[in-house]
Amino acid sequence: MISIKVVVVPGTVKEVALNDGATVRDALDAASQSSEGYAIQVDGVSNATLDTPLRDGQRVALSVGAKGNS
To answer: In the chain, what are the domains?
Structure first.
């Protein structure tokens, strides 16, 4: 089993327990959190996808993309 923190910015932090080999999708499902409209980061790296594999102790962060002035 691995322990993952799912962080929604701004918002909540949920810690979920998953089986070894779990992905970002598994973590979001366990936290009852959709990724729609959010950028996904794993431990601060922004190229994560729903299929990114996770290791024990990692943090999945979902954040709304910042928009600049146009």
So the answer is: 2-63 (3.10.20.30)
